[in-house]
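If your schedule permits, I should be very grateful for your opinion on a structural question. The matter concerns a single protein, recorded as an amino acid sequence and a row of backbone structure tokens. Could you please explain, in whatever detail you think fit, how the structure tokens follow from the sequence? I set the record out below, with my sincere thanks for your time.

——
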Amino acid sequence: MQVRFRVSWVGVAAMMWVISGAAAQTPPPTTAATAIPNPSTMAATGKVDARYASYNVEMAEITGGRFWRPYPKAGATKSLAPPSHAGDRSQPPGTSADLYQYRPPIDLSNPRLIKLARALAPSYLRVSGTWANRTWFQDDDQPARTTPPDGFGSVLTRAQWRGVVNFLHATGDSLVTSFAVSGGTRDASGAWTSQQARAMLDFTHQAGGTIAAAEFMNEPTFPEVGGAPKGYDAVQFARDAKAFASFLRAASPETVFLGPGGVGEGPNSLLPPGMQMHLMKSDAILAATGPIFDAFSYHFYGAASQRCQGRTTVAEAMSDEWLDRTVQTEAFYAALRNQYMPGKPIWLTETAEAACGGDPFAGQFADVFRYLNQLGALAQRGVQTVMHNTLAASDYGLLDEQTLEPRPDYWATLEWKRTMGQTVLDTVQKPAAPPGVRFYAQCALNGKGAVTVLVLNTRSTAITLLLPQAARQATLTAASLTSTHTLLNGKPLATAPDGSLLVPSTIPVRAGKLALPAASATFLRFPGAGNPACQ
């Protein structure tokens, strides 16, 4: 099937093109033991949000609509699953119908889904995405309209939004969202009006919910693909965002105003030659708005997926070049934060392996290294929260959307949640770890002096660590990098039919030498560290 590629960079609204790096090189073998940083003396460098590792549920999932079409299962002959029907108004404008597949609204009352999400609590649940920019809130209890009013692309009912609030209560999550900005929200002069946002916010409160944080719109750096008026620029955004800020602070003063929420910029975000797209730079946005935001937000994808002509391979996904993209892009946005919003916290409100629904390996063990490296590295750089896209949609979902079976990134998130506390510790050491080995550390969750060290071994060979004291070990591996099944200390991670987790226990290890297998991610909890920063 020939895929028509027009301007289809949605989900990171007109997503960035990333030139693939050189093939990953296998580091030379090492037989010497690598000393782990001493957990008792690591200094604290900062603190992250209690809901640091969080996730997204796309607005298109809540309303039902056309979202990224999954790749075929193993053994299928076609490159992509067939589309379920032709394009409709829920599909972002200017994009090819071949890239999407209709999904009915997600059932947030599903007991299995609730149990699996609750195991990751506390988290932020972000309901947003490009589709949210054009979603009309139907503020009555009538059946959903079959078509949205002019100037909108989809319909969100009270019942669907009440389902979000009920899900939050059941899981212990906190809500992050954004609001519609398309033509239907604007007056005769083209200025944004708060009628739709007010109706949605008021009903959230009526249903017993609150909005912890909100962006004005999803990904304003590519405004037209996101549903903003043609020619929308930083001056117009600033006018609208200031109106939104006044509205939000009066109607919901407890809500953190996030912005600008840009994407597609920085050192790893090159558009292909000849592609003409309206990029509204975050620099221009911040210069026009002034310091109206409570916290700086941005989005990051290291590449475009195969759907949008990306070419990242599994081998490249294990390379330092690939893993370092997350820090390079954070540095770009942190510099803007420092210039325009000094001292304000920084949030990564949407990220995954690749834009446009992820590559096939986004749901395989190979992506665990990208994700855990991202969590470890960004915590060290002071990012307050990282919201993975998505919980259960397309190939980058933490859960398979059909079976709700956890994918490897789910198990990685779970182990992070079970072991990592909020205080971030310095892991700089001399001599440095060998190539292909990375250390990250934080005070252990509820540890009273305990420390957890994350060891990523992206090498194709085993490594030997030298532990200064006894620990509890949890090593994640798989039969292959392309496996969708994950092992913990060599035993399978699984779920019961109701969503209960079947997780093997960690194992005790003594001080001294510890061998870690190739392509492994290991959490070492040192209960006797007695680190003063972790008391």
Summary: The chain has a mean pLDDT of 90.
